[in-house]
Queue: 3 jobs
Job 1
Amino acid sequence: MHDWARMNETELQTRILADAQGYDPASRPPSRLTPHRDALLLYRAKGLSYEEIAETLTRLGLKIRPTIVGTYCRRNFRKTDILRKRQEIEAGTAKTELPTVGATPVTSFISARRGGGRS
């Protein structure tokens, strides 16, 4: 290996290490979904899949991919959060109006599909 190649490799390693040491995770911008956290929790508790949530949000004006919805939900909601909200809905202590996807109201929990009912 030439001396210049070794020097460039060492310089690259130094730059990468310096960047990693200076990285501040708090400097990342918040997710576009953060203001809609409560709605996302309600959708998940009512059994909507990530795909259905993304479709609904897009229809309402927030163009978002199902993978982004899934990542946000997995990072921000524990299964117990979703189950607790589901129990509130069943007990009548939460808003009971069902969300709609397209023109069809969602009337049951969706647990068999990927992303539905699980978190």
Job 2
Amino acid sequence: MKKLDQFVYMNELLSLYGSLLTKVQQEVMIAYYRYNLSYGEIADNKNISRAAVSDAINKASKKLTNFEKKLNLHKQKMYSLEQIELLKQNIEDEETLLIITNLERNIRDGI
């Protein structure tokens, strides 16, 4: 998986399962994956070592991946969005298209 794809994927998992991580893991993952801070920047901001940052990211990444393996929420979300895209291609009625577009937005936003 390319680095950018990995960042997108981890951000998705963080959105879905982030609340299941420890507070420190959440903060470090958000700093690294959402704000693109380096290990050194995160370490300085949190007054911890770079090794602690690396450890937190590795453990949290494994946790998020394991949650997805068990629960498949990301996979289900992607499948739903693909199905909605197929529906949108075959609908000519503007009102129905608006409803489906709103549904798509809610799924993307996690509502």
Job 3
Amino acid sequence: MSIAQSDLPGAAVSAGSVAQVIVGLVLVLALIGAVAWLLKRMSTFRAPGAGLIRVLAGAAVGQRERIVLVEVGETWLLVGVAPGQVTTLHSMSKMESTLPPGAPTPATVSASFASWLSRKMEGRAHD
């Protein structure tokens, strides 16, 4: 029994159709990415109450532990965050400035350091 040439399966998919499928997939993925980016940028899809809680600062104190300064309305909360738990460490009313009263501002600290450094450099130049 001989097999005729017409009975053999031919190339089921041509290179052109594979390229067309790949281009179609890339376009669909690009469209999904563009829609996700637009939804992320649009602020109208916020959850109710969004913006009432803000994270102001945070610092790692261990591999998986952090302390975080959170603003909730007119209150600042210092919380400790560890796997499986969040603990309030301190609570205070919202302050306009993070510097304590009478503390030197960064500009005065910078100026005093600059004057100290110039005095030290002048003293070294006279040696």
